[in-house]
Amino acid sequence: MQLGALKFGTFTLKSGRLSPYFFNAGLLCSGPILYTVAQAYALILTTSTDTTTSSFPHFDVLFGPAYKGISFASTTSLVLHTHHNLTVGFAHDRKEAKDHGEGGILVGATIRDKNIIILDDVMTSGKAVRGSIDLVTREGGKMVGVVQMLDREEVGADGTSSTVKEVESIIGEGPGRVQSILRMRDLIQWLEKNGRSQELVAMKEYEEKYGLKT
Ligand code: OMP
Predict the structure, then answer these.
(1) Pairing with 130, which of 6, 166, 178, 193 sits 20 to 30 Å away (CA)?
(2) Which segments of the chain have a pLDDT < 70?
(3) Keywords for this entry (predicted)?
(4) DSSP 3-state of 119
């Protein structure tokens, strides 16, 4: 909220859904906030390996989808090294393939035959992350998980099951392979705590329409 990364109003999303809020992770763009965010990703990546229900197996490379995932994957690989004594590679894609020099669509660590975790900003219908999973798989990487900054906790493209469950079934390694730092319910809780009743009404109406029905 302080950085203006979370906005309330009327926003048309990639999926066509009309949302009363929008999270712009591109505004998390200073040293201090990137450090905070990278520590949060690193914590999820390392604590998850200690639990039985949501464990990530060994991973070699953090993949940050262009553009917003790039800074998160690079800073998190740095924090895993400095704070957790873990050495992992970092890679990202290009939105447009390069036709000269080293060429291609990928930048950074090799992903072929490596265990890959995607770090991304937001998941709504899951379309964007499904595209990244396709790319990683096509390039020979083995998908082992996804960590997103905000799970909007919505139904997926089929309109019934949760986006997270849909993405976990694509990864195909059971539940717990899609984790998030924040969820829609955290935003609601914050609004309640701060007496933001107007925003709450719109958020709850939206949740009614696209939220998980569990
Ligand atoms: P899905 O592809 O529907 O999951 O939408 C996720 C993508 O939409 C994210 O990677 C963002 O590019 C964008 N997005 C946001 O950045 N913030 C939001 O709050 C919502 C969206 C969105 O369009 O759904």
Answers:
(1) 6
(2) 48-55, 103, 214
(3) Glycosyltransferase, Transferase
(4) strand
